[in-house]
């Protein structure tokens, strides 16, 4: 019988001493030796307040500059008819992020390192290269958002973007985890400025309720255009960087399995906030532009702010610009951190917000370098900013399926997660999500490469044919069979105290031949699709 004890670093894969110790959250502290039960509402509330952070930051950070553009485009062009997509994405958001927080708490090892160790250098390198390229482009779009917000407010863009970059770098470079978390949660609270705009626009509540809970397509909308916008909503709501960020942040905050329930509450709070923000943007743009000349003619976030000023009042426009800047800052911080954490994982360099700059120079160099380069690009007079924004949405849609595949495999690896492995129902649901993401990715890639050929018939053929092929393949290969039995009797495992042993003590990852074939096919498609999309982007940039 083996019981792995969470408080014994020698028996777990905890990275180093920076990831062991007191939990010092923005709103409270849990001492390392405090292992007593949480009895009574007051004690539980104190624990929750100390744990709050990872779920809130990763979710609200996803309502970033790109999301502002996508959600307001949906509202301005199609009213509230696409609100239902947000309800459908709630279980996808929860399942994906719950799996990574579980991996972080149980393993003590970052997502990138787990992929390298369990699936080999090729798969690990490809995942990190994907992440690095996509994140670098995403950070540029965050500073585009800052520039648009500052421009609307009449403030100098150059100075404002530079000061914003310095502020985001300074918040991370203090070597104090709690100080960064307080900065990030202040920005999370700032995202609530979208709520008063909702009421200023006087949206019709009956239509909003109908749009939320009754799936529909916009009347008169071209199916190919609508599908591309739906894909953009999926890509901006469920992004690959979220997986890497939350797993590493949970580890950096020193959260262990005994606090899993509290971290799930934190995640749900984040999901509620992100859906409220997204729904508010769709609803108030739909209400403000309904029956106006601007309806159906989305330009960018600055155009939305100007329209809100004209149709909902000056304060609404100002609040929207402030919300855009706030969202861009938290997005820039979170996306940059996810990259720095992943690079630290891959190259085994010290990477923790508990460390001073002099103790983790590589970690902070990656973080600050990405911020500085992105800000400089936005301030460059001839940078193709519109093209970069479109590239982010396209690449996010193309690369997301692979990230979810690795997540599913890791959460079924009994050597890694032990008694915290996925249930059969969760595997079936996640498998269906992966199929949907792959089909959306195929549609998006085809629309970028062959825009003149993607029509309603082609889209329906891809969705219908792909679904049938996926179902046949899943049944034939047995990919969704019940996970392999544990090597130890789960009854002897203490779930709250179980941690993954050091990686060197684990045996090789066991994958079926069918799983390997599926991964090779998926990766082959992703390599080809990513290369073609990047070539297309470069060609357009040169032509412009």
TrEMBL record:
Chief location category: membrane
Keyword Ligase: no
Cellular component, GO, one term: plasma membrane
Pfam families xref list: Nramp
Entry membrane topology: Multi-pass membrane protein
InterPro entries listed in its UniProt record: NRAMP_fam (IPR001046)
GO molecular function, one term: cadmium ion transmembrane transporter activity
Keyword line: Membrane, Symport, Transmembrane, Transmembrane helix, Transport
Gene Ontology annotations of biological process type: iron ion transmembrane transport
Localisation: Membrane
Coiled-coil region list: none
Transmembrane annotation, as ranges: 48-71, 77-95, 122-153, 159-177, 184-206, 226-245, 265-290, 315-341, 362-379, 391-411, 432-451, 457-480, 520-543
PANTHER family in the cross-refs: NATURAL RESISTANCE-ASSOCIATED MACROPHAGE PROTEIN 2 (PTHR11706:SF33), SOLUTE CARRIER PROTEIN FAMILY 11 MEMBER (PTHR11706)
Listed name of the protein: Putative manganese transport protein
């Amino acid at each position: 019988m083996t019981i792995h004890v969470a408080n014994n670093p020698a028996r777990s894969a905890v990275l180093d001493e920076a990831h062991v110790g007191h939990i010092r959250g923005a709103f409270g502290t849990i001492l390392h030796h405090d292992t007593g039960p949480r009895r009574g509402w007051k004690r539980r509330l104190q624990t929750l307040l100390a744990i709050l952070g990872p779920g809130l930051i990763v979710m609200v950070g996803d309502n970033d500059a790109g999301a502002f553009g996508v959600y307001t485009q949906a509202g301005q062009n199609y009213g509230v008819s696409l609100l239902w997509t947000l309800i459908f994405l709630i279980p996808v958001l929860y399942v994906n992020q719950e799996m990574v927080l579980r991996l972080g708490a149980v393993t003590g090892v970052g997502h990138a390192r787990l992929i390298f160790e369990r699936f080999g250098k090729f798969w690990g390198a490809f995942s990190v290269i994907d992440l690095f390229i996509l994140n670098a482009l995403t950070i540029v779009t965050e500073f585009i958002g800052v520039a648009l917000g500052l421009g609307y407010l009449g403030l100098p863009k150059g100075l404002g973007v530079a000061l914003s970059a310095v502020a985001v770098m300074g918040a991370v470079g203090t070597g104090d985890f709690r100080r960064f978390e307080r900065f990030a949660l202040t920005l999370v609270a700032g995202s609530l400025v979208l709520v008063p705009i909702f009421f200023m626009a006087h949206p019709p509540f009956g239509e909003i309720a109908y749009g939320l809970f009754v799936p529909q397509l916009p009347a008169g909308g071209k199916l190919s255009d609508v599908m591309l916008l739906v894909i953009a909503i999926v890509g901006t709501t469920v992004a690959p960087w979220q997986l890497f960020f939350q797993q590493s942040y949970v580890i950096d905050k020193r959260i262990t399995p005994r606090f899993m329930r509290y971290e799930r509450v934190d995640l749900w709070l984040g999901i509620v906030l992100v859906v409220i923000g997204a729904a508010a943007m769709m609803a108030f743009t739909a209400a403000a532009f309904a029956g106006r000349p601007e309806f159906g003619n989305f330009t960018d976030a600055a155009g939305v702010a100007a329209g809100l000023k004209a149709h909902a009042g000056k304060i609404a426009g100002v609040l929207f610009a402030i919300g855009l800047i706030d969202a861009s800052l938290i997005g820039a911080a979170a996306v940059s951190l996810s990259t720095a954490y992943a690079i630290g994982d891959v190259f085994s360099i010290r990477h923790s917000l508990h460390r001073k700059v002099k103790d983790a120079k590589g970690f902070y160099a990656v973080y600050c370098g990405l911020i500085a380069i992105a800000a400089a690009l936005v301030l460059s007079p001839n940078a193709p900013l519109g093209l970069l924004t479109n590239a982010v949405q396209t690449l996010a849609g193309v690369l997301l399926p692979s990230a979810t595949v690795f997540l599913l495999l890791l959460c079924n690896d009994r050597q890694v997660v032990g008694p915290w492995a996925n249930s059969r129902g969760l595997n079936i649901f996640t498998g269906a999500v992966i199929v949907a993401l792959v089909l959306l990715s195929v549609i998006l890639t085809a629309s970028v490469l062959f825009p003149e050929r993607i029509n309603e018939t082609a889209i329906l053929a891809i969705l219908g044919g792909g679904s049938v092929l996926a179902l046949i393949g899943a049944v034939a290969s047995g990919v969704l069979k019940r996970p392999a039995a544990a090597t130890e009797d789960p009854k002897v495992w203490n779930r709250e105290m179980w941690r993954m042993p050091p990686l060197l003590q684990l045996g090789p990852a066991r994958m079926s031949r069918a799983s390997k074939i599926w991964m090779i096919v998926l990766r082959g498609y992703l390599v080809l699709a990513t290369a073609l999309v990047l070539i297309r982007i470069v060609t357009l940039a040169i032509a412009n």
